[in-house]
Design a protein that fits this description.
mainly alpha, endoplasmic reticulum, 2 domains, about 180 residues, golgi apparatus
């Protein structure tokens, strides 16, 4: 049965010993893993981009909480309790992932440092944060397109003849297009 290595405070410092270049390379690795060649080495994070660190997971978790609060704020649902719920849900998800990985590693052979598992589980928040930003930008861009589309079509309808069938078809297309945009929003 595998045992989990837990180190004292001195041993845990290596998980936070990173620099700007390491963070940039690690984020590229997390976001585009298919562009990286993996080499199995056991060096501290500052010397090896493949080594797990706790700096990026903790910063990504903080970013996730801030972005979730921002998204709640622009949707009109912000409250301190809502931020607490987001942070709690994120921590519980992270804990569940760590427990699941730790359980699976106990059935395997070999020692796995618990903080490595915590680090690997925390990298998820990088993708979650990017998803929140993308979702916010996407929803507002669809709103702008729908409003612009509506104004253009209404101007076209007003220029067309008052009782033409062309006008009726244009109104029908406008209604269908706006219905589709409302469903997407």
């Amino acid at each position: 049965m595998a045992t989990f290595n837990t180190q004292g405070a001195e041993g845990n410092r290596c998980y936070f010993k990173v620099n700007d270049q390491y963070v940039m390379n690690k984020l590229k690795l997390i976001l585009f893993p298919f562009l990286h060649q993996y080499i199995l080495t056991y060096k501290p994070p500052i010397d090896d981009v493949n080594a797990p660190d706790l700096y990026i997971p903790l910063m990504a978790f903080g970013t996730y909480v801030v972005l979730a609060g921002f998204f709640l704020g622009i949707s009109g649902k912000f409250s301190p309790e809502a931020i607490g719920v987001q942070a709690t849900n994120g921590m519980l998800g992270w804990l569940f992932q760590v427990l699941l990985e730790a359980t699976l590693h106990t059935f395997g052979d070999g020692d796995v440092p618990l903080l490595d598992i915590v680090a690997y589980g925390g990298y998820t928040f990088v993708a979650v944060s990017i998803t929140i930003v993308w979702r916010t930008i996407w929803s507002y861009s669809l709103y702008v397109v729908a409003v612009s589309f509506k104004r253009i079509l209404i101007a076209e309808v007003r220029r067309s003849e008052k009782h033409s069938s062309k006008r009726h078809y244009l109104l029908l297309r406008l209604a269908v297009a706006l219905l589709g945009c409302n469903i997407l929003l």
